[in-house]
Amino acid sequence: MNEKDTNTQQAALIETVLDTHYNNWRINSGAEHAASDLLADLMHFCRAKGVDFDEVLRRADDYFNYEITSSEEIDSDDE
Questions:
Q1: pTM over 0.85
Q2: pLDDT at 32 > cutoff 70
Q3: Is 3 within 8 Å of 74 (Cβ atoms)?
Q4: HSE on the CB side for 29, CA within 13 Å?
Q5: Helices (H), 1-79
Q6: 46-79 burial string, b = 16+ CB within 10 Å, else e?
Q7: Cα–Cα distance between 71 and 25 in angstroms, integer?
Q8: Residue 1 has pLDDT above 70, yes or no
Q9: What is the DSSP letter of 22?
């Protein structure tokens, strides 16, 4: 399995989370609102656990950029 497949699976996992915890998000609010709700809930979680959400978000952005870059490199190797 390559990085692009893994990234697609990660996106599908979030859709499952949204389907499970944010009923009818596709119909009622759309992806942007659902993602905002999910992030707000993660902020509450981090606060309750004493975790710096800004640091978590920075690290997540680093992971995301690495994963995207890795999958783009795989795509260019396929050409």
A1: no
A2: yes
A3: yes
A4: 14
A5: 3-21, 25-28, 30-49, 53-78
A6: beeeeeebeeeeeeeeeeeeeeeeebeeeeeeee
A7: 28
A8: no
A9: S
3-state helix, strand, coil in the chain (%, to 5): 85, 0, 15
> Are the beta carbons of 25 and 19 closer than 8 angstroms?
yes
Q: Return all residues near 25 (Cβ < 8 A) that are at least 6 apart.
A: 18, 19, 31, 33, 34
Residue 24, phi-psi category: left (phi > 0), alpha (psi -120 to 50), beta (remainder): left
Three-state DSSP class for 76? Answer: helix
CB 16 within 8 A of CB 25: no
Q: Average pLDDT for residues 24-46, to the nearest whole number?
A: 86
73 and 4 Cβ atoms separated by less than 8 Å: no
